[in-house]
Amino acid sequence: MPRLPAGFTWGAATSAFQIEGALTEDGRGASVWDTFTATPGKVRDGHTAATACDHYHRYEDDVALLRRLGVDAYRFSIAWPRVQPAGAGPANGPGLDFYDRLVDALLDAGVAPMPTLYHWDLPQALEDRGGWLDRDTAHRFAEYAALAAARLGDRVRHWITLNEPFEHMALGYALGQHAPGHAYLLDALPAAHHQLLGHGLATAALRAAGAPHVMLTNSYTPVVPAGESEEDAEAALAYDTLHRRLFTDPVLLGAYPDLGGFGLGGDLPFVADGDLDRIAAPLDGLGVNYYNPTRVTAPDGTTPLPFAIAEFEDADTTDFGWPVVPAGLTRTLLDLTADYGDALPPLWVTENGCSYGTGPGPDGRVRDQARVDYLEAHVEAVAAAVDQGADVRGYLVWSLLDNFEWAEGYHQRFGLVHVDFDTQVRTPKDSFDRYAALIRDQRP
């Protein structure tokens, strides 16, 4: 296994709605995901996150697992509805108390807390007023960021504002596959801008509270044209513009890319004076979530989009059907390095993982060799990018625990730790032990 630089950060990641449970405890308000999962037909087999991994009550056990794993950092998310049940107003003290306890437990275990402020669980009260389509939500997000930093900022060094704003816009506002369940197609674009504006305003709030390290986490996917035609190449460029550049150019370059291919030439009507200056506030790192490349072809005329998604023909796939292409992570890190140059802050792989449903055998052991192979190959892919000039500071596995996987419910298992959702028994998998060994081997 190639060695990564001294000081490289190893970690694991989760999100609040996917693991916490306790949805009605400590004054927590409803989120858009509470509403979505309660709507028949939205989540596979009607699964809900009412209990999930019961992390709210079992966090000490989970921190003990992180200590045993040997990670340097733990990326978790703070549930906005737990801090501000209505998405505005004063902080809910009992809700913040939980994150106080979690942060202290992590520090006692020698694990750096790395909270993400927004991992898709918008307070339902804000959605009722327009959600991320409403500009005011960006300002409410900054208010919430300030409350979280005021309570936790004396012990938290690393902050992440948003998780995967592209996915949240695309699946939640454009296609209706995730909460809040809107299918507005290109009319969802204001949700992109308002998330980025919220990021900029929250960054300012975190800086004002003394935060020394602020990041934004985007999902990235190298785009592969399905064929050699000019039309397929144009489709790939359009997809890359929507997925990568729309959410990266404003943050790093202070300008939106040309959206003429989407029928949006000239000034975007939802961008106000001063917005881009706020969005482009300097960052200390850029989070990279990578799972797989995307293959596209010229549009087939069935949607207004200038591309169509095509399947990979020869790649192995995970249980989610996602192609396993470790070289795509190397390419992602190198493309960001080449395309953004001096404007690019250090990179952090803030999510990378795979869904395989392997469970305990008769002896109780979880032999998830496919995940072991996946992790080894993707860590090697990071090392290859570093060797070729990418400044990558950390790698965090998705995920520590099997969890509630959004619209898939409990049918997809990404964890290093198997969770029996009936008994809440946690069983570290072979991949847990392999990752722990890899971390040990990488240390001086």
Topology:
Elements: E1 9-13, H1 16-19, H2 32-37, H3 55-69, E2 73-77, H4 80-83, H5 93-108, E3 112-118, H6 124-127, H7 136-152, E4 158-163, H8 165-174, H9 189-208, E5 213-219, E6 223-225, H10 230-253, H11 275-279, E7 285-289, E8 294-297, E9 308-310, H12 327-340, E10 347-351, H13 369-387, E11 392-398, E12 417-419, E13 426-428, H14 430-442
Helix pairs in contact: 3-5, 7-9, 8-9, 12-13, 13-14
Catalytic activity: Hydrolysis of terminal, non-reducing beta-D-glucosyl residues with release of beta-D-glucose
Organism: Glycomyces endophyticus
EC number: 3.2.1.21
What are the key terms here?
444 residues; alpha/beta; 8-stranded parallel beta barrel; 14% strand
Give structural notes:
Keywords: Carbohydrate metabolism, Cellulose degradation, Glycosidase, Hydrolase, Polysaccharide degradation. It comes from Glycomyces endophyticus. Its EC number is 3.2.1.21. The protein is α/β, with parallel strands linked by helices and about 450 residues long. It has helices at about 15-20, 30-35, 55-70, 80-85, 95-110, 125, 135-150, 165-175, 190-210, 230-255, 275-280, 325-340, 370-385, 430-440, and strands at about 10-15, 75, 110-120, 160-165, 215-220, 225, 285-290, 295, 310, 345-350, 390-400, 415-420, 425-430. It has a single domain, classed as TIM Barrel (Alpha-Beta Barrel), CATH 3.20.20.80. The strands form 3 sheets. Strands 1-2-3-4-5-7-10-11 form an 8-stranded parallel barrel, surrounded by 5 helices. The chain has a 3-stranded mixed sheet with strand order 6-8-9, with helices on one face. It has a two-stranded antiparallel ribbon with strand order 12-13. α3 packs parallel to α5, α7 runs parallel beside α9 and α13 (about 370-385) packs parallel to α14. The mean pLDDT is about 95.
